Amino acid sequence: MVITGHPVARDAMIGLAVKNPRAAADLWTFIGRRLRGQHRAEALTLAAACLCLDSDTVRAGIAIEAALEEADTTSTPRPKLARLLEIALRAGLNPATIRDTLIQSTAEHSGSGAPAAG
Question: What highest taxon heads this organism's lineage (predicted)?
């Protein structure tokens, strides 16, 4: 699944989620339920990122845990973004800080240099 495995495509999906992060999280969760292995881990990581955009760190933590468990269970690489989000959440970063960092990072990777509209 190219969208979830390629950082630029993944970041584009996160950028699109800024306007309606809850719907995007629901979509990636729905997709993730139907996949296995690395694709599932990546889809659940996108769901977690969308939940962070919505400042729902509790559900984001659950999605991250599921993504990392799927990677470990299937002996596939742990998604880097999942690991970064896990660290941020465990460190107790403010949800707004995580959200702003995701928006800025995706804007930089998209080449626009400006935060995504939201």
Answer: Bacteria
Cα–Cα distances in Å, from 73 out to 37, 70, 88, 89, 91?
8, 5, 23, 22, 25
DSSP label at residue 97: H
The helix or strand, by DSSP H or E, that contains position 37, with its residue range, turns out to be helix 37-53
Cα-Cα-Cα-Cα torsion 109, 53, 67, 29, nearest 10 degrees, comes to -110
Q: Which run of H or of E encompasses 19?
A: none
pLDDT digits (tens, 9 = 90+) for 100-115: 999 998 887 665 444 4
Cα–Cα separations (whole angstroms), residue 72 to 7, 31, 32, 104: 20, 19, 16, 29
Domain boundaries, the chain: 2-104
